[in-house]
Design brief:
- The protein is mainly alpha-helical.
- The chain has two domains: 1-31; 32-121.
- It is built from three helices and no strands.
- The chain has helices at residues 3-9, 14-26, 37-108.
C-alpha cells in the first residue's frame, strides 16, 4: 500500500494528501519500503566517500610514481647508453691490445709491413688471446 492510499484511508481528502506529499518533498522527507533505509544509506554513503577518498589518493600516488619514474626512465636510458659505450670502448681496447701484441710479435720475428697491416701476419683479433 502506498502512503497516499494510507492517507486517503485515514479520511484525509485528496487535496490535503497531495499537500502533505508536496510538503514532504520540499522538506526532503522521503518514504521507502525498505527497513532502516536511512541507517543503511548513511553507512553506504560513508563507504562511498571513503572509497572515493582512497581512489583519489591512489590516483595521486600513481601520478607521483609516473613523474618519479619518468626521470628514472631517463636515468635508466642514460645508464644503458653508458653501458653500451663502455662495452664498445672495452672492445676497442681489446682490439688495440691484440694489434699491439701482433706488432710486438712481428717485430720480434722480423716481419715487415706488420705496422701497416697486422692481419697480414695470419692472426686475427678473435683467435689471439693475450
Amino acid at each position: 500500500m502506498k502512503f497516499e492510499e494510507i492517507l486517503k484511508s485515514s479520511e484525509i481528502d485528496d487535496e490535503r494528501a497531495r499537500t502533505i506529499l508536496e510538503e514532504m518533498k520540499k522538506n526532503k522527507i522521503y518514504l521507502s519500503s525498505e527497513e532502516d533505509i536511512d541507517t543503511r544509506y548513511s553507512k553506504l554513503k560513508g563507504q562511498h566517500e571513503q572509497s572515493s577518498s582512497e581512489l583519489a589518493e591512489a590516483q595521486a600516488l600513481i601520478k607521483q610514481l609516473q613523474e618519479a619514474t619518468s626521470s628514472n626512465e631517463d636515468a635508466q636510458a642514460k645508464i644503458a647508453e653508458y653501458e653500451q659505450r663502455l662495452a664498445q670502448l672495452e672492445a676497442e681496447k681489446t682490439e688495440a691490445e691484440v694489434k699491439a701484441a701482433i706488432r710486438v710479435a712481428s717485430v720480434e720475428y722480423g716481419a715487415k709491413d706488420a705496422e701497416d697491416n697486422p692481419r697480414r701476419c695470419g692472426a686475427d683479433s678473435n683467435s689471439m688471446a693475450l
